[in-house]
Amino acid sequence: MRNYEVGVLPGDGIGPEVTRAACRVVTAAAAGAGLRVRMTEHPAGSAVYRDTGTSMGEEVFAALGAADAVLLGAMGLPSIRRPDGTEEGPQVDLRDRFGLFASLRPCRRYPGVPSRVDAPDVDLLVVRETTEGLFAGRHDEVTPSAESSSDRMTITRATSELLFELCFAQARNRRDAGRSVGRVTLFDKANALRSQAFLRSVFLEVARRHADVQSECLHVDAGAMMLVTEPERFDVVVCENVFGDIVSEVAAGVVGGLGVAPSADVSLTRGVFQPSHGSAPDLAGRDVANPVAAVLSGAMMLRWLGERHADDRALAAARAVEAAVEAVLAGGPRTRDLGGSAGTGEVTAALEDAVTSRVAVRS
Ligand SMILES: NC(=O)c1ccc[n+]([C@@H]2O[C@H](COP(=O)([O-])OP(=O)(O)OC[C@H]3O[C@@H](n4cnc5c(N)ncnc54)[C@H](O)[C@@H]3O)[C@@H](O)[C@H]2O)c1
């Protein structure tokens, strides 16, 4: 039997609540599938920064580097800021350290989940680049000024090619699984920004290598509007770092909100799995946060481990979590953001029960 070591970063705000839920459901699914997953918690985030002066210690980075995968809650508290006005972002540092160049953010409309957008068949994947773009100059030396400030947008061929190759592979897999037509759409600003025109030229080169998968380019402003007016036309949508941050939350809103939006930050060898949402300090400690996004992120972790290690047990555990989420979203209980009245704990218990009855054990 294969054992997996998972580094767990509960983080700030609702992070610990939803991470606890994800750990419980993943552990139940793993146990039912005959899989051993050892979870080890580590301190990181804004509260740790306030108390120690660093948001994630070197020993934590080292432990995470030795783990098979990382499960993260959420980091950041608006009340705790660095001298330049920004927040500590150890989850962003993790992307840099581990070369996690892509954040996969599936947005699917589940039966039972209300949305203001009348589009019941949305099933799309936003891929956000996560190491460069408008985040490229985060560590640039700057002279503080009371008159102006700027950030740098840098796009490299090496990262863009890796990103687009991953997108075409995802679109092909989704098409072959019968989920979509198989199309990658680049949202860019190639009409106005040099770096974005370069990004588009690399995209078109990579697209030519994958002629069996459809491809198109849209300006990000038009694309963002179409995500709301005709979301069912999209399959895989890929964007620069900040555009992807925004576009993925628009897509999450279309399918019912951040409470049902998971994500996976990946390189070719590493993965950090976390809900797309932040620390939601307005909800922290009140037993009202929706744990589904974190639980679905746990399912993405099990699926990623299963595919990476050709491990049928991990794939079975992933399927069990996904099926449990579908069942609980369809029949309840649901949290307040989805129109229900249940608490985080009640939904977590329902997910745990549902997963236990669904795991397909393969010996
Ligand atoms: N990856 C991360 O860790 C991450 C991502 C985004 C924001 N942040 C940080 O989180 C803090 C709050 O940021 P924000 O308010 O912009 O974004 P947020 O995602 O925390 O909250 C946005 C809105 O969504 C709601 N929401 C979020 N998660 C929910 C859940 N599970 N269930 C129900 N409702 C939920 C919140 O109540 C709020 O109304 C900031 O410090 C920010 O820097 C962290």
Shape: globular
Number of helices: 11
Q: At the fourth CATH level, what is the homologous superfamily of the largest domain?
A: Isopropylmalate Dehydrogenase
Question: For the terminal residues, how far apart are their CA atoms?
Answer: 10 Å
Mean residue pLDDT = 96
Spans of at least 5 consecutive residues with low confidence: none
Order of helices and strands: EHEHHEHEEHEHEHEHEEHHH
> Helix coverage percent of residues?
40-55%
CATH architecture of the largest domain: 3-Layer(aba) Sandwich
The count of strands amounts to 10
Largest sheet: 10 strands, mixed
Under CATH, the topology of the largest domain is which? Isopropylmalate Dehydrogenase
Rg on CA atoms, Å: 20 Å
Distinct small molecules bound, one entry per kind: nicotinamide-adenine-dinucleotide
Which structural class best describes the helix and strand composition? alpha/beta
- The count of domains is 2
